[in-house]
Amino acid sequence: MRQARLAALAALAAFLAAGPLEAAIDVVINYDYDASGFFGAAYPERRALMEQAAGTVSRFLDDLDPIVPGGSNTWSARFFYEIDGSYTEVQNPVVSADTILVYVRGQDFGAGGHLGHAGPGGYYSWGSAAWNETVAYRGEAGAKLAQPTDIGRWGGSITFNSNANLPWHFGATTAGLGWNEFDFLSTAIHELVHVLGFGVPGSGLSWDTFALTGKFTGPKAQAEGSPNNPDLQLYGDLAHWKEGTLSTVAGAQAEASLDPTLTNGDRKRLTRLDFAALDDLGWDLAMAGDTDCDGDVDAVDLASLGLGWNPAGETAVWAGGDTDGDGDVDAVDLASLGLAWNPAGYAGGSPLAAPEPGTLALLAAGLVGLARARRRP
């Protein structure tokens, strides 16, 4: 017993010495072009929520080549497309490997306007053929197919409605979320997934391969299904699930994040259906329990979950131990990690495969009971 405790402490010490975990895909938020001041110094809570939204996609795995201009190899990133056809352009930004760059800003759409607009960014590149392919595809072979099965863009942009009369909720939790308010975190997550390529018809990206018939035909999303939208029909804009499409979060039924609306007073998270569709689009998912996305489930993942332990919380992300995506780190997450335990590394299998919620609950209850029993003298 003493040796087991020492081993656990050694694993925890190694984890702490290594510093904070990094997601396999690092979403970098850039605020430099927020001329409205929506994310200004007076509003640190807005930036914190934007970073939290970025953390919700830390489960995604990929191997994106860096974009590093030099010599005759140059490029320009283009984003924030306006109604008049103009856009913002940045010359020769450096985008690190496995990184998605997202520019964000506020703009007044009116109190009754959309909450946000987002999508992958455009680009121009000049140089060698290999360089131009790097900018366009970042090493993703599936992105070059006539019917793409992957996406390798540099990133994109999000514009949020900054109208002063729009009732945003900028709280990290749902405490104080009024019946008439729109939850900013829910909107940020939704728009960030659009940047990753969900809902961009006519773009020539992998979305077009699966979505132009009015139904989403991706095999992983089809296998996941929806109780009230079995054909996975899309909304009329071909950019969202049909209104009210249901899936689950942590075993509980929930409206999909990527349907077209957000109800006042509600907080939405990415559901299993949303994750499955992103997997179809080319964003691989780490297996349940693999919080550091390194291909195994071991003591480092357990230490991460332990440090993030917060059964009553709402702000946890994948890298902090939230294996079921509901915002807390509790006995269900611990049970899920335990079932996936594999220090030698996993191969194959479905990252969305999970036991029935009732089975997890029973296992979680057993773990809690065991912990209580061990506290007795």
Give structural notes.
The chain is 28% helix and 15% strand. A hairpin with a 2-residue loop joins β11 (246-249) and β12. It has 2 domains: 2-19 and 289-374, no CATH class; 26-285, no CATH class. It is an alpha/beta fold and 377 residues long. The longest helix is centred in the C-terminal third of the chain and has 18 residues, at 357-374. The chain has a 4-stranded mixed β-sheet with strand order 1-5-8-6, with helices on one face. The protein has helices spanning 2-18, 44-55, 129-137, 184-195, 206-211, 219-224, 272-280, 299-307, 331-339, 357-374, and strands at residues 26-30, 60-61, 74-79, 88-91, 99-107, 116-120, 122-126, 155-161, 168-169, 182-183, 246-249, 252-255, 284-285.
Q: Assign the structural class, choosing from mainly alpha, mainly beta, alpha/beta, alpha+beta, or little secondary structure.
A: alpha/beta
N-to-C order of helices and strands: HEHEEEEEEHEEEHHHEEHEHHH
Strand order of the largest sheet: 1-5-8-6
How many angstroms separate the termini? 16 Å
Number of strands: 13
Major beta sheet summary: 4 strands, mixed
Mean pLDDT: 88
What's the helical proportion of residues? 25-40%
Low-confidence stretches: 6-23, 367-377
Share of β-strand residues: 15-25%
The geometry reads as globular
Number of helices: 10
Task: Provide a short characterization of the protein structure.
By secondary structure, the protein is an alpha/beta fold. The protein is 28% helix and 15% strand. The longest helix is centred in the last third of the chain and has 18 residues, at 357-374.
